[in-house]
Design brief:
With about 160 residues, the protein is an all-alpha fold. About 80% of the residues lie in helices and about 0% in strands. The chain is rod-shaped. It comes from Spinacia oleracea (Spinach).
């Protein structure tokens, strides 16, 4: 635990020695927010727990205006990072959907072609059956007409 605190003190000391930069990074902002006070009785774990709660919007009343401003920058950077990740994932999902659509379209086209081939193979046999049926119907119609004319002739003769 002491080693962790010493490393933390070295990081804080080196960041304050480096001087202010024009645009502080998220790490610099976090270091500024969690400055270690040797007189403080909080352990490193309690400090991290406190920071975690503050980042979730709890126990903010103990922070100064400057610390709240720093936290706001950290959260804005986090939100931007989250939005970028969401956008990346959505684009990836859209790309997958387009690929799936293309694949399904190709499959549908192949099935249509296969259906057309099957129809063409079946149509000649169906059309020959249809022709046979048509001939039979015509013959039946002719026979009915002949029979009807015979009945008329018989009626005329009587």
């Amino acid at each position: 635990m002491e080693n962790i605190l010493n490393k933390y003190r070295n990081v804080v000391a080196s960041s304050t020695d480096a001087g202010p930069s024009n645009s502080p990074s998220a790490t610099d902002l976090q270091i500024q927010m969690v400055q270690y006070n040797p007189d403080d009785e909080l352990t490193a774990m309690e400090t991290l727990s406190s920071l975690s709660q503050q980042l979730m919007g709890k126990r903010l009343e103990i922070l100064s205006h400057h610390e709240l401003h720093i936290m706001e920058k950290i959260l804005n950077a986090s939100i931007l990072s989250i939005q970028n990740m969401k956008e990346f994932l959505l684009k990836k999902e859209i790309e997958k959907s387009k690929q799936r659509e293309d694949r399904i379209t190709k499959e549908n086209e192949a099935l249509r072609e296969e259906l057309e081939e099957l129809k063409q193979k079946l149509n000649p046999s169906c059309s020959s059956e249809s022709n046979s049926l048509k001939r039979m119907r015509l013959m039946c119609d002719d026979q009915d007409r002949i029979a009807g004319k015979q009945v008329e002739l018989e009626d005329d003769i009587e």
